Amino acid sequence: MKAVIQRTIMPAKVTVDGKVTGAIDKGLVVYLGVGKEDTEEDIIWLSRKIINLRIFSDDEGKMNKSLVDIDGGILVISQFTLFASTKKGNRPSYLNSGSPEMANQMYEAFMEHLRSVYDRPVAAGIFGADMKVSYTNDGPVTIIMDTKNKE
Questions:
Q1: Is 80 a catalytic residue?
Q2: What percent helix, strand, coil does the chain show, rounded to 5?
Q3: Residue pair 2/82 in contact by the 8 Å Cβ criterion
Q4: How confident is the model at residue 122 (pLDDT cuts 50, 70, 90)?
Q5: Is 79 an active-site residue?
Q6: Residue 114: in which H helix or E strand, if any?
Q7: Mean of the per-residue pLDDT values for the chain?
């Protein structure tokens, strides 16, 4: 799994066909890509890292606080393009992305796991939909994680 994580201290929302499908007041916006070799182990590792990432500022302006510390939410957006390969030519290849069926199952399992271990708002877009995401990237702070490299 690959994730692009951005912090927001303002409301964030995702809409599909003009309807809000997920929203948080503050916290993390997570773009999640599922690869064809991802497993439940990836879900568990990534969930733990996201919840415990200390990327929110403390009273001294240092990034020492996690989602738990700020009582923040998580807005998860499915994003198969995180597995784009631009090695050859100018048209990205998505051969390393999970199939739509497998990726949707893993996305749903990821959401279910997050909700089971994190008792604050966990919101989402709709897998495979044309989504509009709006928020302010605070900082800006953007973290990229890859479960296969454990970074």
A1: yes
A2: 25, 35, 40
A3: yes
A4: very high
A5: yes
A6: helix 100-117
A7: 96
